[in-house]
Amino acid sequence: MKVVVADANLVPYRDLLARLCPAGTTISTHPRRDRLPQLLAESDAVVLGVPLLPETEGMIGAGRLRAMKPSAVLVNIGRGPLCDEQALYEVLRDRVIAGAAIDARVEDIAANITRLAEGRELENLVVR
């Protein structure tokens, strides 16, 4: 397994990551944001855990989702607006990527469930 840390704030935790990963895992750090498209295209799993800031809102849009490997999964444990939910719904529906798990939605109020949350019929989507 190969783990790539793409956040400069996580670089100090490299030793902790090494202990959490299976034996033989290589961990490399690439905190440069301009490498994000390449990292997305090469990754088996993409985990979004960054804070919601003006520069991170919408950081994963349709183009970046479609650049991911067909076998890749997206996990959003950050804030909903990090990822374009409509685009995510479409790539899951069209099986462009293997799956997604989200613990954050733009709308967390039951009366205003987003299209993605309504997509619970998608077997490749887990919404918490």
Can you walk through the features of this model?
Residues 108-113 have low confidence and may be disordered. The chain folds into 2 domains: 1-31, no CATH class; 32-127, 3-Layer(aba) Sandwich (Rossmann fold). A 4-stranded parallel β-sheet has the order 3-4-5-6, with no helix packed on it. Strands 1-2 form a two-stranded parallel ribbon. With 128 residues, the chain is an alpha/beta fold. 26% of the residues lie in helices and 18% in strands. The two termini are 26 Å apart. The protein is globular and about 40 Å long. The protein has 5 helices and 6 strands.
Tell me the layout of helices and strands.
Layout: E1 2-5, H1 14-20, E2 26-29, H2 36-42, E3 45-48, H3 62-67, E4 73-76, H4 85-93, E5 99-102, H5 115-118, E6 125-127
Parallel strand pairs: 1-2, 3-4, 4-5, 5-6
Give me a quick take on this structure.
By secondary structure, the chain is an alpha/beta fold. Helix content is 26%, strand content 18%.
What's the CATH class label of the largest domain?
Alpha Beta
Stated plainly, the CATH topology of the largest domain is called Rossmann fold
Distance between the termini: 26 Å
Low-confidence stretches: 108-113
- CATH level-two architecture of the largest domain: 3-Layer(aba) Sandwich
Radius of gyration: 15 Å
**Secondary structure tally: strands:** 6
Q: How much strand content do the residues show?
A: 15-25%
Name the average pLDDT. 76
- Helix proportion range: 25-40%
Sheet/helix structural class: alpha/beta
Described by strand count, sense and barrel closure, the largest sheet is:
4 strands, parallel
Task: Work out the count of structural domains.
Answer: 2
Shape: globular
